[in-house]
Design a protein that fits this description.
The chain contains 14 helices and 18 strands. By secondary structure, it is of the alpha+beta class. Among the domains are: 79 residues, Dna Ligase, domain 1, CATH 3.30.1490.110; 156 residues, Nucleotidyltransferase, domain 5, CATH 3.30.420.40; 34 residues, no CATH class. The strands form 5 sheets. Strands 3-2-1-6-11 form a 5-stranded mixed β-sheet, with helices on both faces. The chain has a 5-stranded mixed β-sheet with strand order 14-13-12-17-18, sandwiched between helices. Strands 7-10-8-9 form a 4-stranded antiparallel β-sheet. Helix 1 packs across helix 4, helix 7 runs antiparallel to helix 9 and helix 9 packs across helix 10. The chain is globular and about 95 Å long.
């Protein structure tokens, strides 16, 4: 199977997350995920494309260097705030009632309903996404799976569509162009987050999904396996940080760090932690301030209770408050705030759990941070984009950090009369052969002649005397002792025994 790569960008009010996944068939493996502070984004919308492009450009360059790939296009999440839902419907008279209804026919009906929906202002509004609510035939009302393969004279469909600002979408396109990448696909993230963190039984029996980000908190309600309701408010974790900054006269960075390290809801449930006091040192003036953990929790709880009550009001407004058998699932960066889930449970009476990306839908060996609640949007976009078998966000040629030296030119080899190729021309062959034949031997210095031996100085060696004696013993027999062999061999022989 062909290997593809999906690169997604989650544009948050306080952070930007870049995620890269390798896709082979139905196997999705996330190989890269990193977050960095964002800029030029407010309420999850790009308001300054130039400022927003700088951190995105840096994030893409870092990912390319680490993975040794070239990212040419990215999948981007659309804004979650300033989006309203509408209802669209369409119906057709089928030309051949006896033929079976196919998936293609259902998809064409959905496209027809979206294309013909009358926007109140086509110059300022754009359809961000749509969710099928039901299909109907002559004698059946159900889901896409229910009507697929049936026969009918007519086919009708009802859809929830989500309408947002066209300017926000245009700013995203401008930002990507400034960052040097193209737009591969724009995804309405609330639907993607639901697919990433919700279980099938939760979506079927009824659940409210609350995604709390830095600038926006959104609510999605699922019933019967379908998203039935969506809304969002412009409040989130950044408002909590602002409250700490204003109340304690800190700067934004210090207030954010204190919130992440010691922030918690419900001060009465902090136990021994509530008695602790933070000492904030001012290195410039040489002074310090004290901040009680319990007082910090009271500041955070006030804002969180306000956000929770707004979400509960929207749940009542949706008409599904009595049908949420699986309670509430809390996800997003705000889900990391200690005791927030308990606060929601106290205020609502619903069961509450933290929504982490479901590991059974992807693999992520050696990719830290991808299993946290704040990565839910990135994982959801990867899973939704991977469905398109033609989508590939990188170029075919891997990125090369240093140019390789050009190979030396090779002379073409012409075959000889025997059909064999030679690496040399005829003249070259003769020259080489000649050199091999006339190659002169290496000259060495002559050795000096050995001096002649004087015949008077020549004596039989002890070894020769030994063998002469040994042969004499063999002739006489072995009765004589071994010492007889050494008799008469001289003192030199005795020294060599």
């Amino acid at each position: 199977m062909q290997e593809r790569y999906i690169a997604t960008v989650d544009l948050g009010t306080s952070k930007l997350a870049l995620c890269v996944a390798r896709v082979v068939g139905d196997n999705v493996q996330i190989i890269y995920y990193k977050e960095r502070p964002s800029d030029g984004i407010r309420y999850n919308c790009v308001f300054n494309p130039k400022r927003a492009a700088a951190p995105l450009r840096a994030a893409i360059g870092e990912a390319e260097d680490e993975l040794q790939i070239k990212i040419t296009q990215v999948v981007v999440g659309l804004p979650r705030y300033d989006v309203h839902q509408e209802t669209a419907s369409a119906s057709i008279e089928r030309s051949n009632p006896d033929s079976l209804i196919s998936r293609e026919e259902i998809s064409d009906l959905r496209s027809f309903a979206l294309d013909t929906y009358p926007l109140s202002d086509g110059n300022k509004e754009l359809i961000y996404g749509a969710v099928t609510q039901s299909f109907a035939t002559d004698d059946l009302i159900g889901s896409e799976d229910d009507v697929d393969g049936t026969t009918s004279d007519t086919l009708a469909g009802n859809f929830k569509i989500f309408v947002g600002g066209k300017k926000s979408f245009r700013n995203i396109d401008i930002m990507l162009g400034d960052a040097g990448v193209a737009l591969a696909q724009a995804i309405f993230t609330p639907t993607a987050v639901g697919e990433a963190v919700l279980k099938k039984d939760e979506m079927t029996n009824g659940v409210a999904l609350i995604e709390m980000g830095a600038g926006v908190t959104s609510l999605s309600i699922y019933q019967g396996g379908i998203m039935r309701y969506y809304t969002a408010i412009p409040f989130g974790g950044k408002n909590i940080t602002a409250d700490i900054r204003l109340e304690c006269a800190f700067d934004d960075d210090l207030a954010e760090n204190i919130k992440l390290a010691f922030g918690a809801c419900l001060p009465d449930k902090l136990q021994s932690m509530g008695d602790k006091v933070l000492q904030i040192n001012d290195e410039e003036n040489g002074t310090y301030e004290h901040l009680g953990i319990k007082y910090l929790s009271e500041i955070i709880t006030s804002r969180c209770r306000e956000i929770v009550q707004a979400m509960l009001f929207r749940i009542q407004e949706s008409g599904f408050a009595d049908r949420l058998r699986c309670g509430i699932v809390l996800t997003g960066g705000g889900a990391n705030l200690a005791n927030l889930a308990n606060l929601i449970k106290e205020e609502s009476g619903y069961n509450v759990r933290i929504g982490f990306p479901l590991a059974r839908k992807f693999s992520s060996d050696g990719c830290p941070g991808i299993g946290e609640a704040e990565a839910a949007a990135s994982v959801g976009m990867v899973l939704e984009a991977a469905v398109d078998p033609t989508l590939n966000c990188i170029s075919e040629v891997s990125k090369v950090s240093e140019p390789k030296p050009e190979p030396e030119s090779v002379k073409e080899v012409a075959p000889d009369e025997n059909g064999q190729g030679n690496l040399f021309d005829k003249e070259d062959i003769e020259t080489v052969a000649t050199k091999k034949i006339v190659k002169e031997p290496r000259k060495r210095a002559p050795k000096p002649p050995k001096p002649a031996k004087d015949p008077k100085d020549s004596k039989p060696s002890p070894l020769n005397i030994f063998w002469k004696k040994f042969n004499s013993v063999l002739e006489k027999g072995f009765d004589n002792t071994l010492a007889e062999l050494y008799d008469g061999m001289g003192s030199d022989t005795n020294n060599q025994k």
